[in-house]
Amino acid sequence: MPLEEIGWLRRGACRSSDPDLFFPLAPSPLQEARAKAICAGCQVMEECRSYALRAGESEGIWGGLTAVERRRTRFPAGWRNSAAAS
Ligand code: SF4
């Protein structure tokens, strides 16, 4: 990925956090909540979330969203039916 596309990452609040919080080997509700709390105070959360949705990042927490939450945002319930109808 081009560096200019993720340059904002240098200003991310997670930069000095434990990477396991954002890319855990064994995800847990506590780890997820702690990562999301860091994202909530991050000055580049909108850029981060937008990038992750656009790029289809399939792992980790980006912009305060888990991979499952990003999938639901990109493909809301019923999207297949509405795509087939058009
Ligand atoms: S929104 Fe979260 S994952 Fe994205 S840069 Fe900020 S702290 Fe890191």
Automatic annotation (TrEMBL):
PANTHER family in the cross-refs: TRANSCRIPTIONAL REGULATOR WHID-RELATED
Name of the featured protein: Transcriptional regulator WhiB
Position of the signal peptide: none
Biological processes per GO annotation: cell redox homeostasis; negative regulation of DNA-templated transcription
PTM per Swiss-Prot/TrEMBL: The Fe-S cluster can be nitrosylated by nitric oxide (NO).
Protein residues bound to [4Fe-4S] cluster: C14, C39, C42, C48
Compartments in which it is found: Cytoplasm
One protein family per Pfam: Whib
Family: Belongs to the WhiB family.
One GO CC term, this protein: cytoplasm
Entry's Gene Ontology molecular function annotations: 4 iron, 4 sulfur cluster binding; dinitrosyl-iron complex binding; DNA binding; metal ion binding; protein-disulfide reductase [NAD(P)H] activity
Keywords: 4Fe-4S, Cytoplasm, Disulfide bond, DNA-binding, Iron, Iron-sulfur, Metal-binding, Transcription, Transcription regulation
Limits of the 4Fe-4S Wbl-type domain: 13-72
Cofactor(s) needed for function: [4Fe-4S] cluster
Transmembrane helix recorded as keyword: no
